[in-house]
Write a structure and sequence with these properties.
619 residues, 6-stranded antiparallel sheet, mainly beta, disordered N terminus
């Protein structure tokens, strides 16, 4: 029935809009510009349309035997097909490039890429598995060339065949010479996306890139007290076999991103996507879930985009001929609460609004929410207001790349009655370049304009607010550090967001080598919290030219959880002591030591999120 319903919907929608998988002739003859001898307009360096062929691009397999090919009026690739002719689709691993022609940037100072593409069935890191890459030294062998990934905004990609246009600036080091741009698709024996690309264009000039959302880390254990977040339920459901249903019911918490069928559709259930927060990048599919009280809907509050929901029920890894979808089981889940309302008649506490928005009497978080909520959808306040609170959690801390930060504040630093400070500027109303980074627990006063985003998310207006004052209280107690020491600050390494960390050489020659230890997640740096995350089995080996006496690691706190691997840390040599947000390794007495995350837990509590590492040398 599900497959039939999809077909009916697809036929209906075809009359109104074009999404992907369309096989429709172009309205006029549009030859592939670079392959048809057509002269490019001034400022255009490459203009490839994939409507009828791959043009000047060619498919090259770095591993496996998959290919890019032209179908559905697009260049497309997937590792999920009926490869052996038995009538059943299966996943096949491979790394497959679609390599473009060489581009001459000799007389170009700035350039950017515009790509029109759709992406479905991706469960992993979109930019890592569906990459736009560039190389200076490609000579025909993709395995020996040096490729740099150009990350793009993944919002709207990963779970549908709706086309999205992204703009990506090309780094300045590629100007003044020649380079090759390619698309790289990566899939495994257990999972593959389907990537379809309508066109790819390279033009002179720089564009304002939309800052990508930072994916949340998996958290929660599926209980009502600690429900899975969206990243957590994706990780849990991904462990199920094809069309396998979970043996237990779980609780899932998220924000309604988009609604396919609301409860008043005539069947008493609803279908929608949820994300981690209004701007989350991961999405999970809530399929035909029942209403509050585990009942079919007859009357009551309908869902709206931006509502915070908790859903309770079973989940499945649904597989059809179109691919796989992680989702709740039809009519075997229900909405436990909508914005804290369980249907029992008891509304959640909203706190007490305080302040008038002036510097002398700033809004608290509750008052800021009330003030912004009175604005029309996407309306912006005419005046700047002051908002005072304690940082409860940080989505994206300040980096020199974007110069802004996003975090939640509340009266007491808890995650109750919070207000969202979205992409605010630094002290003195300037973009961040250097300085003290805010931490969970810090007191702040924010000055700026607020908005009622989409009519359901009160927040500060992007880049139209700033931190008026910052009082550092967060991060726990850090012991005094002797003079005979050196400190690594991850935020000062200039690493890209979500990039793997391997070797770091300090100014005194000491080398830190990070290792995944067999975990599919190696140590990575994240802008959110500006820390290096070490997952279970990960380790860091410190090798110095003189004896080490002590190592001190300062850890981040996320949504009230101290990220110290729950104290499950080992050192060889050395004795580990964990106190709140500080891990101390004593008694090293060697020029080399290895510190390992040995946690058997999952989610945030299993991680070491390192905001600073200090090495104290022996006298």
């Amino acid at each position: 029935m599900k497959k039939i319903l999809y077909s009916v919907i697809a036929l209906t929608m075809a009359a109104f809009t074009f999404t992907s998988c369309e096989d429709v002739p172009a309205p006029y003859d549009d030859p592939n510009n670079n392959g048809g001898g057509q002269e490019l307009p001034e400022g255009v360096l490459l203009d490839q349309n994939f409507t009828s062929s791959l043009g000047d691009f060619k498919s090259v397999a770095a591993s496996g035997d998959l290919n890019w090919y032209n179908d559905f009026s697009s260049a497309m690739v997937t590792g999920y097909q009926d490869f052996n002719g038995d009538g059943q689709k299966e996943n096949k691993p491979g790394v497959t490039f679609l390599v473009g022609p060489e581009i001459d940037f000799t007389d170009v100072t700035e350039a950017h890429i515009t790509i029109n593409h759709a992406l479905n069935y991706e469960r992993g890191d979109i930019n890592a598995n569906n990459s736009i890459v560039i190389s200076k030294d490609y000579t025909g062998d993709v395995t020996t060339a040096t490729w740099q990934v150009l990350n793009y905004n993944t919002d709207g990609l990963g779970n549908s065949f709706t086309f999205v246009e992204n703009n990506v600036n090309i780094p300045s080091e590629y100007m003044g010479g020649k380079a090759v741009i390619a698309l790289r698709h990566t899939c495994s024996e257990t999972q593959s996306s389907t990537w379809e690309v309508k066109s790819l264009k390279v033009q002179e000039g720089k564009v304002d890139e939309e800052q990508p959302s930072t994916p949340e880390e998996p958290s929660g254990d599926g209980t009502l007290q600690n429900p899975y977040n969206v990243a957590g339920i994706i990780a849990y459901t991904s462990t199920l076999g094809e069309n396998e249903t979970s043996d237990k019911e779980v609780y899932i918490k998220g924000t309604v991103k988009s609604i396919k069928e609301n409860f008043d559709g005539g069947f008493g259930n609803a279908t929608f996507y949820i994300t981690d927060g209004a701007n989350g990048s991961n999405q999970f599919y809530i399929y035909r879930t029942l209403y509050l009280g585990n009942q079919k809907y007859t009357s009551g509050e309908l869902l709206k985009e931006g509502d915070e929901v908790i859903v309770h029920g079973k989940v499945t890894n649904y597989v059809s001929e179109y691919g796989s979808t992680l989702e709740t089981v039809q009519n075997q889940s229900y909405v436990y609460s909508i914005n804290g309302n369980t249907g029992s008649g008891e509304e959640p506490s909203t706190g007490v609004a305080k302040g008038d928005g002036s510097l002398a009497n700033p809004f608290n978080a509750v008052a800021a929410n009330e003030y912004a909520s009175k604005l029309p959808a996407d309306g912006v306040s005419e005046k700047e207001v002051y908002i005072k609170g304690k940082i409860a959690s940080i989505r994206e801390n300040f980096t020199a790349q974007y110069g802004n930060a996003s975090f939640y504040i509340s009266d007491d630093g808890s995650n109750t009655n919070t207000f969202y400070v979205f992409r605010t500027l630094y002290l003195n109303n300037v973009k961040y370049t250097e300085g003290t980074l805010p931490q969970v627990g810090d007191d702040v006063i924010i000055c700026g304009k607020v908005t009622n985003y989409k009519g359901n998310t009160p927040e500060t207006m992007q880049n139209q607010s700033y931190i008026y004052s910052l009082t550092s209280n967060g991060g726990g107690d850090t012991p005094d550090v002797p003079e005979n020491s050196i400190t690594l600050i991850p935020s000062e390494l200039g690493l890209a967001n979500a990039s793997a960390v391997e070797n770091v050489t300090l100014s005194d020659g000491t080398v830190l080598t990070f290792d995944g230890g067999g975990n599919q997640n190696p140590p990575k740096y994240y802008n959110a919290g500006t820390n290096i995350r070490m997952y279970p089995k990960n380790s860091v080996t410190i090798k110095a030219s003189k004896k080490i006496a002590q190592v001190i690691i300062k850890c981040d706190t996320y949504q009230g959880v101290i990220c110290n691997a729950s104290g499950d840390v080992a050192a060889n040599p050395g004795n580990v002591e964990t106190k709140d947000a500080v891990i101390t390794v004593n008694g090293v007495n060697s020029a080399q030591t290895t510190i390992s995350n040995i946690s058997a837990k999952t989610g945030t509590a299993s991680q070491i999120r390192m905001t600073a590492l200090t090495i104290v040398y022996a006298e």
